[in-house]
Amino acid sequence: MTKNITTTNNSKNTKKGKPDADKKTLLEILKKKGNVESIVDDWIYGYHLNAEMSIYELLILVLEISGADKEKLKEENFKRLDIGGNKGAAKAVTDQPDSTESYPLVQKIFKYLFNQFQEFWRLLIIKCQTSILYDQYFIEMLMQWFKELGDSHLRGLRHCTVVICTQITNTLITICTQLKKDLNIISRQLTSETQNTVRQAQLKDNQNQTTKQVKLMENIMEKRIFQKILEDRFDDSLPEIRSLVIGPLAQWILLYPSLMLNADHTKYLGRALNDWIADVRLTAVRAVSLLYESDTFLSQLDMFTQTFRHRIEEIAYSDKVVAISVEAIRLVQVMAKHDLLEDADVLKICKLYQIDNQEISMSAGDLIYQQFLENTEISIQAIPQKTDKSGQRQQLRYSQFQAIGDFLEKSNIPVAYYLINSLWDKGYQIFTDWGFYVKYLQELESNDIQDNQLLIILRIFKVSVQIAVGDRLWVYSDQKEPTDKMVIDKDISMEVTSHFISLFPEILLRYKSNFSVCVELIELASYFKVDSYIQSRQQNKFKELLEAIKEILLLHPWESQLTCIGQTLYKLLQTSKTPTQLESESMAMVHEIFKILLKTVKSSSNQLTSLSNDTEIINEEKEKKVSELVIKLNSDLAKLDSIGKLFHFDDEEYDGLLSSLWKGKFNVVIEKEELEKTIRYASSCYSNLITWTLYQEYNVQTNDGTVVPPLNDKLLKLFYMFSEHMYSLITTPDTSPQLLLFSFKLFTDTRLLFSPALDQTALHFYDIPLPMQTPLKDCAKSLLKRENAYNIDLLKQNFLKELLEDIERKKHSKAVRRRFFSKKKKSTKTTTDESETDKNTTDAGETANDTSRSEKDSEHNISDSDVSESEGTKKARDLIRRDLNALKENNFQEDPQSEGRVDDLLLTMMQSIQSGFVPTRLLIEVLKQIAYSPSKRSLELIKEFVQQHPLPSGESESSIIVKALVRFHSQCLEKEVSSNSLFQKQMFSRMNTLASWMITKAIHHDSLPLIIKKCIRFIQHNPKLSKGREFISVIEFMCTNLTTQQEIEMILDDRVQVVFDKSHKYLPFIDKLYKYIESRENELKTPSKGKSKKGAPTKKAPAKPTTITSKKAPPKAPPAKKKPMARKRRRTSKWASSSEEEESSESESESETESEPEEIDTDSENDKQQPKQPIVNIKATKSPKNQITDDNDKESSESSEDFEPSPIKKLKTRR
């Protein structure tokens, strides 16, 4: 098979240089997975017979495998013409236009071909190293051709050339490395030869020949390949080719530093670090990492380090591509190991453990481990634990924790969990050294450790136990939570408990005055296993632990961190399956806590009541005493609430006390904030009481029905009192928004639990004022209106700041561009003629001086003009600053808690809608939130709700969607939005986003035609609507999403027709659209003629024209003037451009005087009785179904498929 490649002595044609018709090309043989070594041998044999034709075969291989037209390189041109130049043989090849089509070298069908191709060139150079490589024809011809092909327009040729040159360089480096080893051997042999013998002469001759070979190959690598071919490819327009050249460069530097390790080569790696393509930057970072991993050449890389270390730090800290940032952090880790970076810069990279990305956080954790822990850990492991009597291991371990604590204090967000989680893989042995923690806690008094240091160590200890037992938190947004329930490692829990059984109660009581330390210790105790107390026969220690927790709970008045104490008590007494030996005493202790808290609450309440009647106390003392009593009352109520959520308490006076407290009437002056706390805690405790009464006593089954007696006085009384109280809070005008939101959430949550039981009782006998639909709806709307007002101000502020930054950015770029062109113009100026006389020269010199002065003046003027601005820009900046100042004057401040409030409010509203507590039309307000850039959680909640709970009919679905659009349009006309025209335009674009989202996510009943009809009716009933053109653009956009069947139904359905008055303001827009629809209607009503696919005559169109068109007889196209609606929604449609001026001519005062737009719920029956007016229908050009894509996280005004960019021309190479 391979004999056909080369010529033989028996072939006359090949001797004369004529090609053999049956001869196979090199590519065809490589594709068939032929033996590459035999192919190379046959080519070398043919080269000795006809070198010119063999080189021609190699070039044909390059052209074929790169997808170029090999016919452009004819044999006679190859022999007759020069290689380069305008009339050279390479001209026709390199001038081939670029193509996006794949070529054999990168096609998936030939996965093996890339390796075959590289192996061919490797073996070719190896086998030619002793003969052909030095004949001055082989390398000369190939390098000249590769130089021309490397500069070709065709990307495949450039790619193929780079692959060949990199492979040749790799092979030559391998050969040179071996030759240098041979040179060393020859040099040692020459040194051992003391006499001038024939062997010494032979060794010197071998030394000279080997040196010449090395120099020749180095010349080929440096002068012929790198400088003439590869150097230009570092700036190639194709990023894959740039990556292909950068990758091997670092390997060449390491393998052959005598030639490659210099600034002329390493500068290309530094330049690639600034490449705007991510793949190139990633390749460059990995290449630089290879250089610094070797300790041999660090001193020679000093210049590179000083030049590019800041760029490396910048990539690690702020590159937007995660993979690049991770690789750069690893590079920083390697460089920091050799002390090549400053400590402050390394510390800045270490703080990336707080980033919300698991890969970056873990990479930063590896860097932290290396900087603060690794060396000490090596020293600890070198000390035998059995022989460490002096406690050296303990001291070194403490130094590790001290270093981690110091670093944690310097962090922006000193959360121990983030840090320990990032260090866990490498620092597992450090953080699970339970013996160290025991000794550390035992030596607290002797070591005189400060409270802040103790607090940090305890936080690290708690997090270490939490992660070790498997109770991990999912802190990264890109990390998916497991669907299975997390299982706690009981063995580790037993081990931790056994270490701290006797020590923990003592430590708790010692630090009971420090509430922060106590909270960390109590949270740590939640992972203890009660079984360990039984096995070790230390039940008394368990009782001491509970007593210590009780004392701490009753001692401190602070309301924060109470949940963790309640959770710890619950885990110790319930989830751990407390043995019967401890259960009764433990529960008795919990009930004792309840009794004490109930007594203190009653006492505080009575004292407040008595103070109102005490006239002997001075006002200042009275106010101080009232404040102290209210703080204590709220603290005790908060404690009751925290443990009441987890344990059931029954007391005859409990519900009566709570019902008196939630009224907030003590007849003394109390701060509003503290009074609202009292109401909230008392209401929450009462809700807990209802829940426990319902589930503890009556065994309610919410799924299959509720087992409740027909009439239970106690349960109905509790619910009656609670409902009446919630009703009063929700309907009272003076209720603050915070308390209103709390009441709305609490009543909804309680009612959701109680609803199954409510249907089984005789509740209709009682006149219970349940806050049903109207009050709850008004409450939710008022709360959401307040949050929307804040969101609009926040959006406006961010929008104005972006505009201001854009003006500054444009000003700066304009100044840079002017200075650049000024310097360019100055550099191209010609000099004076040297042949002039001395006098003329002197005159010319004076003129030159004047010219230089004038140029300086002109440059100074350019600089001033750069600083100066046009009147329009100044006016725009002043207006933006005016609006920003107006927001500040209105006391607008960013509220970080607003997002959480909106999330909770939306969740409660959707639960209320689902359960029927509020009308379904409240969903309008929920859907409107899509346009206000909600949080990711809110967006997921709304999406899940509309998908799992569709509306019952298309009529209700269409009404909800249309009203959402109408109300948001009205919001865009409010003063806070319309005061800035650019911001109003952005808000209208958000309306388009809202329409896009609802069309793709909220429609379940094929109601899009009905939605369009109702939108048109809204325009019809509001002829003086301000900014109605923006609402019509939403209609146009919805029309692009109609299916073919929906288009036909809309055309033939008389119910879609809407009657407009001739004087209607927006009639021209609708009328122009209707004219196009009319032509489309005539087209669809005309039956197609001809035969069907089987040859039978085509039948007439049925009543529902779903089969009007036919392949052999397509319908006539619409008239040329009836063009479909434009795809780009931001531009005015062609059929609406004629009336643009009519709308723009309206005065701005018209929008202020117009009445509120009328919302249309259903079709008006009076339309049929109106006199006949121009009937307007609506439809738009057909677009593919599901045209709008899901892009919920972006604040874009268009759908992603409204604009169809041309396909990106990008080559996928294989390496």
Automatic annotation (TrEMBL):
Domain of life: Eukaryota
Chain intervals with Acidic residues compositional bias: 1139-1164, 1190-1204
Comp. bias intervals (Basic residues): 1088-1097, 1119-1133
Every SCD domain range: 230-315
A GO term from the CC aspect: nucleus
InterPro entries: Cohesin_Scc3/SA, HEAT_SCC3-SA, SCD, STAG
Residue ranges, compositional bias (Basic and acidic residues): 852-863
GO terms of biological process kind: sister chromatid cohesion
Region described as Disordered: 1-20, 825-875, 1082-1215
Ranges of Low complexity composition bias in the record: 1-12, 1098-1112
GO molecular function, one term: chromatin binding
Protein name as it appears in the record: STAG domain-containing protein
